[in-house]
Amino acid sequence: MPASSYMSNYVPILIQLILAVGLAVGLVAISELIGWRRRSKVKSAAYECGITPQGDANRRFAVKFYLVAIVFILFDVEAVFLLPWAVVFRQLKWLGFVEMLVYIGIVLAGFAYIWQKGVFDWNQPERAEGGPASPIH
Amino acid sequence: MSLVPAEFYWRILPELVLAGFGAVLMLIEGGGRAGNRGRLGAYVALLGSLLAFGAVFIQAANPGDAFQHMFRVDGFTVFFDFVIIGATVVVVLLSMDYLPTQHLERGEFYALLLFGTVGMTFMVGSVELIMIFISLEISSISTYVLAGYRRHAPRSTESSLKYFLLGSFATAFFLYGIALVYGATGTTQLYDVARASLTPIVGGGEADRVLLLAGALMFIGLGFKVSAAPFQVWTPDVYEGAPAPVTGFMSAGPKAAAFAIFLRIFYVALHSSGHAWFWMVYVAAILSMCLGNIAALLQTNIKRMLAYSSIAHAGYVLVAFAALGPEGISAVMFYLAAYVAMNIGAFAVVSHFAHREERYVDVKDYAGLGFRFPVPAFCLSLFLFSLIGVPLTGGFFGKLYVFRAALDAHLVGLTVIAVLNSALAAFYYLRVVVFLYMRQPAEEIAAPPMTGAFSLVMIACVAVVIWLGVFPNRVLEFASRSAAQMLR
Amino acid sequence: MHPALFFIFGGIALAGAINLLVQRAPIYSALSLVAVMGALAVLFLLLGAEFIAFIQIIVYAGAIMVLFVFVIMLLNADVPEPTRRSKVAQAIGYPVMALLLVELAGFFAAAFGATPVRTGGYLVQVAAVGQALFHEFLLPFEVTSVLFLVGVTGAVLLAARREERHGAAPRATRVHAGVPTRAMAEALSVPPNAMGGAVIEPAPQPESEPAHARAQGDGR
């Protein structure tokens, strides 16, 4: 395959990339240049009956988020493997189907495990000891 | 065309059994109503590892390649599968004794043990670098997590984190080495690499240099995994912080598996540049022995002492490695078998005496235990004597074969250093024995219960150590045959 | 056109990488890593490795970066306090790094010659990746799933809340027990439920475990 036709497939993406970056940079730059700002104490104060903020807005996030991210990666990678599989699905015939089934089966075991562990159960922060957290009550 | 004939599955049967039981353990731990899931998990893991041990016999009956020459069942694979799965069985038993006293028994622990073993057994059978890499990762990641299993103990977390960070770094080196091998030869199958390195695709004789760099990078990665100096810095902290049975496991299974792929990669794939990497092995061997033994002399914590001793033992194995021949391979194999038995045995006793939160892990805590707890103390002494290399123990013949292989390869200097080091090592091993039998205890340690599981561990380890020390021939013959077979 | 693209995106990758090291706040480093990943994806595309380019975007710029950002938020990693910077390490480290880089560059120049940048010469189609993955590399492919299981087990084991002996005091009561304004500020900044789970190091944990056990836990 000639190189030029291969790369020309991606020209739209390149154009979009340039547009996106240009727009983002351009808008910020324009507002920086011709924007009109005046900071005052009143402006930065809490509005009307708002509460005066205390302490640092940056605080630790619950470890749950991290676990969700891990699960996300897990299925993301699985999805990545599905892509080449789907492309050659017809040539692979039944064997390919079974291969993928086994693979997904094993990954699903992991999914079942984290589900049972209550990783997705965000409603029940103080789960009783010992018992598995059931997501449905 | 059938892509996956039935015998392929027989060839990876131990791995299949282990992975299946691991998955079942995860599901048990996740599901099921409260109750004693940890204990149930222990029995399932024990059953799984025993079945896998049995499955190695089936695997051995079906020698040959599997899965597009990714996996090879030969004597070498079978030998290491026995060693590694045997170690896992022992560690499962040991954990059944240890975890309840720490109030930490959970199914995931056993699941990770089994998964780690899947990684190690795949490692020793793989003859393809990508496969080796994936299985190495499986084994490493399981051990990283297991090291941090006592999550509430800062030292355990520290151990896990250090191991993870440095280990990932080392794995990256290894992976880079694989990429260069592929770049130089266009293949990742070890035997094809060996062939291709003779007729390289990269022109101008430069493939040799790329392969050499690849060898150096893989040496760093594997050197870390076997805790050979100068890549040993992580060892004492990680061994000290990890739960005692896990430390035993880490010093046995992953180490044996890493040495196995070390042998396969360097003796088979990088055979053509042996003259060059020989010196890396030579220097690492000397450094590991000297550094490990001298540092071990200064330790008071018994886990740290055994950690340094395991660095030193990696050095002895590298001495045989430097012999560059089938005798070297068989000596490495025999040594590792003996080492795994005696080291897990020693850690078993350490974990037996450790008590809740691992309070008693100082050499001083062992004062006077010899008469109060004669059986475990006697076993510990036996394992320590074996680590020294006293006759009638497996360690003796292990060292003997290592030295013989090195002398046959005319490595006189290296052998002399190794012998001197073994003499030096006797000091710190004997010091523990002295404390066991000749010192008055400062504090009365409450009697740990002699559980059935612990007794079985002791029987198994003592039996193997004595067996290798009294009838070494059969094992050595098997190792020699496998070595010749592997190089073909 | 291709060499131009190579140099543009190679430059972006390099600039992003340098920015990553220079930034003090971890979140900026993470974001410039996204730029590096994106630029690398284009480089892969130029080399004709479509599949790897997509992976680079989907997995690295997508999933892995999400994980990074979550970890930064989880640790509440602020601008770090500079540690005692060792002058010796700097004096030795930078020259040695430069030396190694030069050596490596020289090595590759010698090994592969001064081959000019070659782009678009070959094309690896996704179908070819699929064929290789599901025939030749079937075993590694299936074994990866075990790797995932290990990763999941490890993450849950280390990060998820364990059925600990006594557990931390319920979050809600703690919030109410606090000074009212503070409780409200907390409630405003983060929904209480989202904070309910285990933070890696839970805040005061009165009855979690006896102090002496913890003290002896270090094993010294």
Keywords:
heterotrimer, A: about 140 residues, mainly alpha, Methane Monooxygenase Hydroxylase, Chain G, domain 1, 5 helices, disordered C terminus, C: mainly alpha, Four Helix Bundle (Hemerythrin (Met), subunit A)
What does this structure look like?
- The complex is a heterotrimer of chains A (137), B (488) and C (220).
- Helices cover 64% and strands 0% of the residues of chain A.
- With 137 residues, chain A is mostly helical.
- Chain A has a domain at 63-121: Methane Monooxygenase Hydroxylase, Chain G, domain 1 (Up-down Bundle).
- In chain B, strands 1-2 form a two-stranded antiparallel ribbon.
- By secondary structure, chain B is mostly helical.
- Chain B is globular and about 70 Å long.
- Chain B starts with 5 loop residues before the first helix and ends with a helix.
- Chain C is mainly α and 220 residues long.
- Chain C contains ten helices and no strands.
- Chain C is globular, with a radius of gyration of 25 Å.
- The model of chain C is unreliable at 164-220 (pLDDT under 50).
- The chains are: A mainly alpha (137), B mainly alpha (488), C mainly alpha (220).
- Chains in contact: A-B, A-C, B-C.
- Chains A and C meet through helix 1, helix 4 and helix 5 of A and helix 3, helix 5, helix 6, helix 8 and helix 9 of C.
Please sum up the structure shown.
The complex is a heterotrimer of chains A (137), B (488) and C (220). Chain B has 488 residues and is mainly alpha-helical.
Write the layout of secondary structure elements.
The complex is a heterotrimer of chains A (137), B (488) and C (220).
Chain A: H1 3-8, H2 11-34, H3 41-44, H4 63-87, H5 89-116
Chain B: H1 6-11, H2 13-30, H3 37-60, E1 64-66, E2 71-73, H4 75-102, H5 107-125, H6 129-147, H7 154-185, H8 190-198, H9 207-225, H10 235-241, H11 244-269, H12 274-297, H13 302-321, H14 326-354, H15 369-372, H16 374-388, H17 394-408, H18 412-438, H19 452-470, H20 473-487
Antiparallel strand pairs in B: 1-2
Helix pairs in contact in B: 2-3, 2-5, 3-4, 3-5, 4-5, 4-11, 4-14, 4-19, 5-6, 5-11, 6-7, 6-11, 7-8, 7-9, 7-10, 8-11, 9-11, 9-12, 10-11, 10-13, 11-13, 11-14, 12-13, 12-18, 13-14, 13-17, 13-18, 14-16, 14-17, 14-19, 14-20, 16-18, 17-19
Chain C: H1 2-22, H2 26-46, H3 50-75, H4 87-112, H5 126-136, H6 138-159, H7 171-177, H8 180-189, H9 192-195, H10 211-216
